[in-house]
Amino acid sequence: MRRIASRRASLWLAAVLVGAVVAIAAAGGASAQHGALPGAKTPVIGAHPEYEYIGNYSSQPSLLVFGCQTRTFPNPAGWCYGPDQIQTAYGIKPFLQNGYDGSGRTIVIVDAYGSPTIQQDLALFDTAFDLPAPDFSIVNMPGVQPFNPADPNQVGWSGEVSLDVQWAHAVAPGAKLVLLVAKTNDDADILAATQYAYDHKLGDVLSQSYGEAEQCMNPALLAQQHQLFQAMSAADWTMFASSGDSGSDQPGCGPNDPPFQAASTPASDPEVTGVGGTQLIATPVVISGGVITDPGGQYVRETAWNENATFGAAGGGGYSVIYKRPDFQAPVVKDQKMRVVPDVAYNAAIDGGVITFWGVPFGPGAAFRFGGTSAGSPQWSGLAAITDQLAGGRVGNINKTLYKLGKTDQNTYFHDIVDGNIGAFAAAPGFDAATGWGSPKTPALLPAIAKPGNG
Questions:
Q1: Most exposed of 170, 220, 401, 455 (fewest Cβ within 10 Å)?
Q2: Integer Cα distance of 247 and 242 in angstroms
Q3: CATH fold of 18-450, please?
Q4: pLDDT at 75
Q5: Residue-wise burial string across 6-20, b where 16 or more C-beta atoms lie within 10 A, e elsewhere
Q6: Cα(446)–Cα(455) distance, rounded to whole angstroms?
Q7: Would you state the pLDDT for residue 256?
Q8: Nearest of 447, 377, 311, 337 to residue 171 by alpha carbon
């Protein structure tokens, strides 16, 4: 049975784990020292997300600052962002300040194997970044076995769990979170978990930070998956999936098969909103005399995410070989008869990654900067929870609305990404196969999605 790669946007990332443990001081932090971690490996078919070790949280500041949050602007290399910076960059903070934080909505996060440290990792994340503790529950599918820290596949998925849970919470701190743990990352087990979420009405929004080339999934399971997504759309679920971290190519279907140009499922399903990757450049935290004088996070620009030269990873995108071009894409996809992914994008860079606590490799307090398109799916899910709250109910499948708004006035609702490429596909003005419509300008976009009649 083919296993889905837990890709941080498709968990196929070439995992990068570097650094030495560094204690972070309360005022100003310390940059992580870099070096190859003993025993660190690049996994074969992407059972790990992209990440880099940045230090250990060893104090109790009211605002945690790591060295990578303070790099001299405008040099983006080596940056990282905390929740406050991301909330500022994408315009989320005013919603939170006015009580629109996803309250009353539930985000369901499907991942395999789970994580033995997720409860303490989330609690530390909340303490470090002054976030409220969420209503957080874990549902284990039948047959889930005790976590095996000697299995690199399970360890990789535990990192995905930390990323998904913490960053859905960072965007929508008032939303309930349900971590739904699949027995394994086999296609059938992931699908069974998603079916369980639907059958048991676990939530409103589904986040899927995993995927594989469409051609690699069993056709019968692919058909079952599509039927399930149709049923979930009819029940007004909003669904997101990461578009992949291997650029315009996807890993081969077997461990020894070469990569090939392909779109990733489930992101390519027309019922799902596919999330691609960008590299966000926002202003850094500024510290003077041991005091934070500027919290940073002001949006500067974005490019298509491509760190192949440094990390061997780039945002996924391309053309489906399974799904015909949906009606909502017809106004902007003129030269193709098949579905295009991604639909939208979000910060996915490792240099410029998001700070995440993950205790599995080094124990309590270990902090990493995570990248990959898997960072975008949970954050877009948080945006959907806020939108549901604005709307006073589920907005459901948002693809039709996204394309309507993008076609009407893209620059009002999205940061149009016009620079960079993901391999075979380049970012360009308007909709493209590298970054879709671009990243969200939330002050305009979320109310427009919530407005009755836009769907």
A1: 220
A2: 12
A3: Rossmann fold (3.40.50)
A4: 64
A5: bbbbbbbbbbbbebe
A6: 12
A7: 87
A8: 377
- Please tell me the predicted confidence (pLDDT) of residue 432: 98
Exposed, middle or buried: residue 209 (CB in 10 Å: 0-12, 13-18, 19+)?
buried
| Angle between the N-to-C axes of helices 442-450 and 399-413, in degrees from 0 to 180, rounded to the nearest 10 | 150
Pick from 181, 126, 151, 149: which is nearest to 362 by CA? 149
Which residues make beta-bridge pairs with 282? 299
Residues of the chain with pLDDT under 50: 1-3, 5-48, 60, 455
Q: What pLDDT does 254 receive?
A: 87
d(CA 172, CA 450): 16
Domain ranges of the chain: 18-450
> Do 208 and 110 meet the contact criterion of CB atoms below 8 Å apart?
yes
Number of residues in the chain? 455
Place of tokens 């992931």: 190
What is the pLDDT, as a whole number, of residue 73? 65
Residue 333's CB: how many other CB atoms inside 10 A? Answer: 18
CA distance 333 to 4: 29
pLDDT tens digits for 103-148?
999 999 999 999 999 999 999 999 999 999 999 999 999 999 999 9
Angle at 214 between CA 211 and CA 219, to 5 degrees: 115
Identity of residue 146 = P
Task: List C-alpha distances in Å: 140 to 6, 134, 143, 189, 190.
Answer: 17, 19, 8, 12, 12
- The tokens for 332 are 């902007």
Q: What is the pLDDT of residues 91-113, one digit of tens each?
A: 999 999 999 999 999 999 999 99
Q: CA–CA separation, 9 vs 5, rounded Å?
A: 9
User: Are residues 163 and 115 in contact, defined by beta-carbon separation less than 8 angstroms?
Assistant: no
